[in-house]
Amino acid sequence: xxxxxxxxxxxxxxxxxxxxxxGYDLVMAHVAYDAWAEYIEDLxxxxxxxxxxxxxxxCGTGSLALELQPRGPFRYLATDREPQMIxxxxxxxxxxxxxxxxxxxxxxxxxxxxxxxxxxxLYDGLNYLLEPDPIRSMLACVxxxxxxxxxxxxxxxxxxxxxxxxDYFEDEGEQDGFRYVRRSAYDPEARLHTTTFEITVxxxxxxxxxxxxxxxxxxxxxxxxxxxxxxxxxxxxxxxDEAHDDTERIHWVLRRREATPAS
Length: 263
Fold this sequence. Notes:
The termini are far apart. The protein is about 25% helix and about 35% strand. The protein folds into 2 domains: about 30-160 and about 215-255, Rossmann fold, CATH 3.40.50; about 160-210. Strand 2, helix 3 (about 65-70) and strand 3 (about 75-80) form a beta-alpha-beta unit. It is globular, with a radius of gyration of 19 Å. The protein is built from 7 helices and 12 strands. The strands form 2 sheets. Strands 4-3-2-5-6-12-11 form a 7-stranded mixed beta sheet. With about 260 residues, the chain is α/β, with parallel strands linked by helices.
């Protein structure tokens, strides 16, 4: 790669989503966030009717939050570990006039001031936790954040997704001075999916490497079984069908059990 003068352009490594945040909405332009919001709204209506407060983890640039919040309307707090993503989300919320609060938080170590009716973690956020212990920490934080009877709705990408959709994980695009090239590699033995973004912005080139682990349904069920959560549903993505071993995306609904009256 060259800078136009014949000299190679320096390529810098970047933490995941730090530079990508600038053009993340371009990268995700194929996602129908309105359909995602409709599906999640339906799950909340069925499994936590009357929900009024939502905490979203791993919210990215806030696209789902900005679609879902007015459907309640909900008191909505959306968080992400990467400050650059939160900056973009806040600008979008201000532009649209949406009363969504955005904060920086790590979803394996967080607390809320008041319990909420629902917690969300969607679009492969969980898959960025590469070992069981961080998942255990996340589940403990979520359980503590929920009011009794509250629900945790999250999805997970499975090995079937990485195997069946390899062609969809590679693309490129350009808009307003931001250019990206996405390449993907899946190691079926380790079940690690590595996505590499080469990003050019303002004449500078960066590389971000995003690594996810593809968990099976049985592995996730075993981790949930260690917790006090009640499993309400495990759906074959975006449907009412029960998830199975070949499901590509599983939507789980967990419930924090109602408090047991003191005897």
